[in-house]
Automatic annotation (TrEMBL):
Coiled coil: none annotated. Keywords: Dioxygenase, Iron, Metal-binding, Oxidoreductase. Fe cation binds at residues 5, 63. GO terms for cellular component: cytoplasm. It comes from Platanthera zijinensis. SUPFAM superfamilies: Clavaminate synthase-like (SSF51197). Binds 1 Fe(2+) ion per subunit. One of its GO terms (molecular function) is oxidative RNA demethylase activity. This is Alpha-ketoglutarate-dependent dioxygenase AlkB-like domain-containing protein. The lineage of its organism: Eukaryota, Viridiplantae, Streptophyta, Embryophyta, Tracheophyta. Belongs to the alkB family.
């Protein structure tokens, strides 16, 4: 269980209530897996606009962002808006 999962109620975790994560800006290398070992984890790239949802049996899997991939945000975000370069992640979970 990661640090932020420890902030959730035991009831929320027991029910396997989902975590919903929205990615905006630069892409990120996301790690996940059964073992709490980054070297054994699966990898996925989360691009701007991606939504990640995990719950149920997969709710307490090892997960986290290994790195941010600079300068990968859609150009309209930095050229046509006031969004600064980088990555913004909005994560929703029931505590």
């Amino acid at each position: 269980m990661s640090r932020h999962d420890k902030d959730e109620s035991k009831e929320s975790l027991a029910k396997g209530l989902p975590v919903i994560s929205f990615s905006v800006g630069d892409s990120a290398e996301f790690l996940y897996g059964d073992a709490w070992d980054a070297k054994k984890a699966e990898k996925a790239i989360l691009d701007s606009g991606d939504v990640l949802i995990f719950g149920g049996k997969s709710r307490l899997i090892f997960h986290g962002v290994a790195s941010i991939i600079p300068n990968t945000a859609p150009t309209f975000l930095t050229n046509e808006t006031a969004v600064r370069p980088g990555r913004l992640n909005l994560t929703f979970r029931q505590l």
